[in-house]
Design brief:
By secondary structure, the chain is mostly helical. It contains 2 helices and no strands. Helix 1 (12-26) packs across helix 2. It is globular, with a radius of gyration of 13 Å. The mean pLDDT is 90.
């Protein structure tokens, strides 16, 4: 069964900063806490931007 728990609890603040940064890059206004008022398109664009940045970071680490 899948879990939505953070594997390293100490990383929670860093993940929140990363999410806020990705949201700002795609023009989505996130607030601290609950963001259930976002459309699926907005939430997807934030998640997509996060994945894109993670892949870029990994590819750069291979160089």
């Amino acid at each position: 069964m899948a879990s939505n728990k953070i594997a390293v609890p100490e990383a929670k603040a860093a993940l929140e900063r990363f999410k806020m940064e990705a949201a700002a890059e795609v023009g989505v206004n996130l607030k601290q806490g609950y963001n259930g008022d976002l459309t699926s398109k907005q939430a997807g664009s934030v998640g997509g931007q996060m994945v894109k940045k993670m892949i870029e970071s990994y590819e750069n680490s291979l160089k």
